[in-house]
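Before drawing any conclusions, I needed to go through one protein's amino acid sequence and its backbone structure tokens, quoted below without any editing.
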Amino acid sequence: MFKSWLLESMEPEFKVKMVGYEWCHQIWNNLETYFVSQTKARVKQLKIQLRGIKKSTTINQYLLEIKKIVNTLAAIGPALNTVEHIDAILDGLSEEYDPFITFVLTRTEEYSVEQIEALLMAQEERLEKHKRSEGDPLQANLAQGSFHTRKQPNNQGRGFNNNGTNGRGTHIGRDHGRSIQNYGRGNKQ
């Protein structure tokens, strides 16, 4: 009677796998073997997937993607310990995070996952700030040009006049102090 109830409660795909078993314990052991092997395969697949995650969006989305896999692993099998979780986070970061990774790995005290996540979010903000300040060379050039314009608005009163000479009759340029009248006439001085 229990055997018939057990078989009736199964999906058709599982009933096919139970053909030939006479006793309930045989059916039960077969189901256990099937689900254990499926779970092991899923754990292996998730760990491979975890090692393959690379940060390609924001750090928050990256951390959520890792957390989802870590939570799934904890639900179906052995959970990752803190070191494995942090290793998974650090392994997927790009080279711009190398100084951060070195700092974390060389520290004698261990961080919690939450501390690493908070530090990474702060690091991402710093990297974005640097990218914004370096990202617009046109604006940087305009700012530099306006700085020079403000710094030297009028050269009068500083030993310069408007014709490009320093007020002593010599031209500032390639002729190194020779007057313009003498330039090109055999360079007599």
Summary: The helical segments are 2-8, 12-15, 24-52, 59-76, 82-91, 98-106, 113-135, 137-151. The chain is about 60% helix and 0% strand. Confidence is low (pLDDT under 50) at residues 146-151. Residues 54-133 form one domain.
